[in-house]
Design goal:
The chain has helices at about 1-20, 70-80, 85-95, 100-115, 145-175, 180, 200-215, 220-235. By secondary structure, the protein is mainly α. The protein has one domain (about 1-235): Orthogonal Bundle (Vanadium-containing Chloroperoxidase, domain 2).
Length: about 240
């Protein structure tokens, strides 16, 4: 009985140690590319959480697909695709699993990085992180369970509202996808979608996620910007 009790205590200690780790061992590199059975084309009519309406913020109309600027953009995509490397293909596949999924995983990384409490002071008190000086020790934030829960909620609500607005303007402008405009010149590296292509759901999820994560984890802006550039690169190829 005593031996069993000791084993239980050791196991509990190991679990606590693992839960306080500053990193997450994700098994996520080879998720399949997202290919929804239902495209939810009417998502622009869904009720937003934070916005008063899907069109609260204006989204400018896209340039015509017959314009010289658009032709230049198509040629830029072709150039990228003609020179695509193996690493870039893996990047496309990685982000092809879904922008919401990947940015929530990035949030998990940041929560894990900031989930250890600071060392106590000599007098037994604990220093408090400062949002005004996030890089000073102890770094801001201390992502304890309440902070982490609120952070996940803020990010998810923001992503949802951004997508509702995105789909509203997709239906409003009904912009054809590049592979539809130039079916012989543009390769489809992702599953084809019947949805209008503008605005890009990847772009709006990336935009809102980046701004929310910078607000929630102000000391990690370089890393957040790095992941945003990676996402953008994966979507213009």
């Amino acid at each position: 009985m005593k031996k069993n009790a000791i084993l239980i205590v050791i196991a509990a200690g190991m679990l606590m140690l693992h839960s306080c780790s500053k990193s997450i061992d994700e098994q996520n590199m080879h998720y399949p590319m997202i290919n929804p059975v239902r495209p939810d084309a009417n998502a622009g009519t869904w009720k937003p959480i934070l916005l008063t309406a899907a069109n609260e913020f204006a989204c400018p109309a896209p340039i015509a697909t017959t314009s010289p600027d658009y032709v230049i953009q198509l040629n830029e995509i072709k150039s990228f695709q003609n020179q695509i490397s193996g690493d870039e293909r893996r990047l496309v596949e990685y982000w092809g699993a879904g922008a919401v999924l990947r940015w929530n995983e990035i949030m998990r990384e940041l929560v894990a990085l900031h989930n250890l409490p600071p060392y106590q002071n000599a007098d037994g008190t604990y220093p408090v992180p400062s949002a005004n000086n996030p890089l000073a020790y102890p770094t801001f934030p201390f992502a304890n369970p309440p902070y982490a829960a609120r952070a996940y909620a803020y990010l998810s609500a923001s992503q949802y509202d951004a997508l509702v607005a995105c789909y509203y303007y997709k239906q409003l402008y009904n912009r054809a996808a590049p592979f539809t405009v130039d079916p012989t010149g543009i390769q489809t590296l992702l599953p084809k979608s019947t949805l209008p292509s503008y605005p890009s759901e990847d772009a709006v999820v990336m935009g809102v996620s980046v701004e929310m994560l910078k607000l929630l984890f102000p000391g990690d802006q370089d890393y957040i910007n790095q992941r945003a550039e990676e996402h953008k690169r994966a979507r213009i190829i």
